[in-house]
Hints:
8 helices; mainly beta
Amino acid sequence: MKSNTGFLSLSEELQFYILYFLPYRDIIRCTSVCKALRQTYVSSSELQYTVELGGQHLIPISNTDSDNHTPVSERLQYLRDRAHAWFRVDIHSAKTISIPKPSYVDSFIADGHIYWWNEEDDTATIKPILPKPLQQTIERNWSPGTLCTVTNSAIIRVLMDPAQNLIAIVCVDDETLFVSLRALDDDSFHPQAAGPTLSLSELPGYDNEVDSEGIELKVMGRHIALQRAASYHWTWQLQIWDWQHSTTSDSVLSEDYSHEIDFCFLGNDRLLVVTDNLKLYSIEDIVFVSVQPLRACLLPADGIACSSKPRMQAQPMMYTSDPKHRLLCITAHTHTSSTVYIISTRIFFDLAETAVAMPIPWKCWGPSNTRIFQCPLEHKVHVSGNRVLQTFPVSTSDSGPNEYVLHLMDFSPLAVTNRRGLGQVATKPSTLNVADLECMHDSCEEHLTTFLPYVEVVLDRKFAISDLENIWIDKDRIYLLSDKLEVIDV
């Protein structure tokens, strides 16, 4: 006999149990086509919390006190309120602090701290910015001659990662490069490091000459990557260490190049190299797939936020940004303007095996995973998770733009729901003329159409571009750097 038992005949508790194991998009699909399942969803804070996390492209962090003791309903409300808060930012509520920082140093901001390294006199500083209650803070000053302890060596790059209590220093001694590793808080030997220094593997055809402008160092978890680019030989090399287990590089990439090259980590096991194509590598076995963009001169503006920047939290977090659903910012420049590509990283986590043998053309991945903006050369941009902060001109003169405003954009799927009537929704395709950018191959077009959805809020304060040396956005603050530092809490 045929049974009449179906899914809807199950108890609401069993329906919830089954729905709970579905991805958030499938929960939305199921509950949008069936009134009974919709009622199950509406009565369940757990299901709504799952959808809210997925829709904001967040993943939960388990085994924390806040995770164990905060009711799901409160976590759900906090997520919704926090998302809404970004669309009613009061740009005029900034707190101002002075920072004794000369303009020629390399600086960045992450999680309530400012970090800078002065290449001219080999000094470095970490300074907390308006720390919050219970926030773990660190404050250090390295005077000249104290960053590298090797005699007669020159410092080329400094990387600080408080999340792992790590400071990594690229030094050159008799034209030999090495990376010095120490504990950040007291300069002692790092307890997790395999050794005090990382040595480079020399490749055939590469000499020991060092072009300091072509050196870049980045860290993600147990991997450190060092880029070397010699413009006078048009050669490029990237070495990767598992610094907690070996002092010699486990993986080496090298090639000749005709365009500028940059790279960034995608999670703990993938590396994206930006050349004339976007090349995605598996760190463990150096197998790569090539995703073919349409234009040359592509450079990551800030990499992927949260991938290699320090993490210092005021209290245990209940969630974090999903590395499979973040944003990558890549810029292309002409003599008169900048073209900004905002790309969803989901494309790099869902590639067919055939991509290893043949590059994926732009038309197969670019339009639905990208938004493109054209801006003046003075344009500023910063990305954090699924949010983008950009400057756009609002007034111009004969000499060019002279006033700018900040645009805050949220690319998460639930941004439209969370905005509660604030901001403007961009779901229609936009087409830009990019004919001035150098083509990478003969089939490139003069116009690009992209339609990655987002919600945008224009912050009602005007700036002269000279008043914005840099901008940053993180999980709950906006930072504006000029001769002083302005901090806006969200």
